[in-house]
Amino acid sequence: xxxxxxxxxxxxxxxxxxxxxxxxxxxxxxxxxxxxxxxxxxxxxxxxxxxxxxxxxxxxxxxxxxxxxxxxxxxxxxxxxxxxxxxxxxxxxxxxxxxxxxxxxxxxxxxxxxxxxxxxxxxxxxxxx
Length: 129
Known about the structure:
Blueprint: H1 2-15, H2 19-69, E1 77-85, E2 88-98, E3 104-112, E4 118-127
Antiparallel strand pairs: 1-2, 2-3, 3-4
């Protein structure tokens, strides 16, 4: 009995894989490669988004710094600005609002991509000199 089972296993081992086994193995490899490609695509999109957010933050920070350097007390209201960083154009809006203390103003700089999607908002408080 032992020799019959051994012969059956030995005969099977010499034949190789069946068509079904090969197709299952190919399907597993295809699914793994598909998942890897999707992950690589997501990483690329995230890297581009991070680059846009960093450049937009530079734009907002530059506008707020320029406002601080003028050493003038800003009026309440909104104004638009544009900025170019890393070869891309960004649109921004400065919103100046009063605070409970009349000697201070809150200024928000919101920067959007060319399609109008907000990327970053930075805020600061400016004082009367």
